[in-house]
Design brief:
The chain has 129 residues and is α/β, with parallel strands linked by helices. It is built from five helices and five strands, in the order E-H-E-H-E-H-E-H-E-H.
Length: 129
């Protein structure tokens, strides 16, 4: 099963989302802030990253740009997670390199569909290369 990196600064959110994804068979890795998220992406090269946008120390936009700028991690699909539901967050997420966007609180069925979509695209791109 696929590995998912959750970059989320709120421990309760990390724990709840991680347990839910593990129940669906995913291997889950956690990072509590932007810098550790970038490092975890480089170290583990997960299949998908769930990136909280409003992180302390380094926001999710910056962390996403750093992941996308690195040759080792640029191919990883990133789903932005944010409580902010406005056009600015969506546009800035896409600009930074996110593949998808999901609002909090997360609706699990919708998120699972987005994760599956990211995984399918990744497999298709790998086959085409």
């Amino acid at each position: 099963m696929a590995t998912i990196l959750i970059v989320e600064d709120e421990e309760a959110n990390r724990d709840m989302l991680g347990r839910r994804l593990e129940r669906y068979g995913y291997t889950v890795i956690f990072a509590a802030d932007g810098p550790s998220g970038v490092e975890a992406a480089r170290e583990h090269v997960p299949d998908v990253i769930l990136m909280d946008i409003m992180l302390r120390e380094m926001d999710g936009f910056t962390a996403t740009r750093m992941i996308k700028a690195d040759q080792r991690t640029c191919h990883i699909p990133i789903i932005a997670l944010t409580a902010g539901v406005d056009a600015h967050h969506w546009a800035t997420s896409l600009e930074a390199g996110c593949t998808e966007f999901e609002t909090k609180p997360v609706e699990l069925v919708r998120l699972l569909k987005k994760i599956d979509s990211c995984l399918i695209r990744t497999v298709s791109v790998a086959r085409d290369q």
